Amino acid sequence: MNKEERVIMEYMDLFNKMVWLNKVKMEAALKGYKASEIHFIEYIEKNAESNVTRLAESFYMTGGAISKIAKKLIKKGVVESYRKPDNKKELYFRLTEQGKALYKIHEGLHKEFQERDRVVFDRITEEQFDIMLGFAERYGRHLDAEIKKAGAVVKAE
Questions:
Q1: Which residues lie closer than 8 Å to 98 by C-beta, 6 or more apart?
Q2: Is there a contact between 109 and 29 (Cβ–Cβ < 8 Å)?
Q3: Distance CA 25, CA 22 (A)
Q4: SS3 at position 60
């Protein structure tokens, strides 16, 4: 296995380990919600004027798939939709109080996981962080270009 393959395999392995370690606590604390629904809630909380187009771009999903998730979350009472007075065409989303409570639980879990892993990150220098972030950004831009070539919508920066 060459170094390129090792890097990709190591990153995939890290991601899979994080998912495995976090899954039990996440599922217990956010019972009844799928990961895609929680990420939808997180996006809405962190991004003002969230709409189908922006969510679809961010999650690399179709507008139809986003609408389906939105309908489920509206039915569960955690998201509500609205239209702006000056734009009757576009549908926007915001969290209800119940949705904000779920978001806070999710964020609390992320902080807990960050604390668990702090022992690793505390030993990384600024230069090492810059190198890793630079690599991730370059690779991300490359993959965005490949996605665009394939005819899909690329996330707006």
A1: 76, 77, 78
A2: yes
A3: 6
A4: coil
DSSP codes, 22-42: HHHHHHHHTTT--HHHHHHHH
Under CATH, which number does the domain 33-149 receive? 1.10.10.10
Per-residue confidence in pLDDT tens, the chain, 157 aa: 899 999 999 999 999 999 999 999 999 999 999 988 999 999 999 999 999 999 998 888 888 999 999 999 999 999 999 998 887 788 899 999 999 999 999 999 999 999 999 999 999 999 999 999 999 999 999 998 998 888 765 555 4
Spans of all domains in the chain: 33-149
pTM (2 d.p.): 0.82
* 36 in Cβ contact with 133 (< 8 Å): no
Look up residue 53 and give its two tokens: 């187009």
- Tokens at 42, concatenated: 């997180």
Please check whether residue 40 is in contact with residue 73, taking contact to mean a CB–CB distance below 8 angstroms. yes
In 3D space, the residue among 87, 101, 46, 41 whose CA is nearest the CA of residue 66 turns out to be 41
Q: Locate 70 and state its tokens.
A: 């939105």
